[in-house]
Design brief:
Length: 178
């Protein structure tokens, strides 16, 4: 009887190890200023003007996509309801249109509709997130998600310092209210 119990334990341990080794990891990418580059133009009808693809990040995404043990998603704070308008605007790209045009075959696209990305990243089980937004980078790191900074314009450190200062001010205010 003890031998059967030991055999069952061994079988369960082998099964757990198999599942762990074959579990797909989730890697996520932001869209704007991570995969696609743009700048704000107050004279544009849409506000943002497409500058081109962020080739380094596209190549990085494609390497993850090629790995069968990795699931790749795009998580954007764009509003999904505005995607049709993006397709019609010559200065802008819709997310799925851009991905198709550039041959980036992700496993899904998620719109957070202006909300921070962290809840979506956690629900998806992201282990690595790529973004240019310091708020999303800091949120990821605070939740044990590795973060890779997209810094196409060389201003990330200043943006992060501002975000940290804002968070510290809000934290002090919240503590002072208690």
């Amino acid at each position: 009887m003890q031998e059967q119990v030991n055999n069952m334990r061994l079988l369960f341990e082998i099964w757990r190890q198999y599942i762990k080794e074959n579990e797909r990891r989730v890697v996520t990418f932001d869209f704007d200023d991570t995969i696609s580059l743009s700048h704000y133009d107050p004279d544009s009808d849409f506000g943002w003007v497409y500058d081109g693809p962020h080739e380094m990040m596209i190549e990085r995404a494609k390497k993850f996509i090629a790995d069968p043990s990795i699931t790749v998603y795009v998580v954007t704070s764009r509003f999904e309801k505005n995607e049709a308008q993006s397709r019609e605007n010559p200065d802008q790209w819709a997310v799925k249109e851009f991905l198709d045009e550039k041959g980036i075959e992700v496993d899904g696209v998620y719109f957070t509709n202006g909300q921070p990305k962290i809840e979506t990243l956690l629900k998806l089980g992201s282990v690595l997130h790529h973004d240019d937004d310091p708020g999303d980078i800091l949120d990821a790191r605070e939740n044990d998600i590795e973060a890779f900074v997209s810094d196409p314009y060389g201003d990330y450190n200043n943006l992060e310092a501002s975000e940290l200062q804002l968070r510290n001010q809000n934290g002090m205010t919240a503590e002072g209210d208690v």
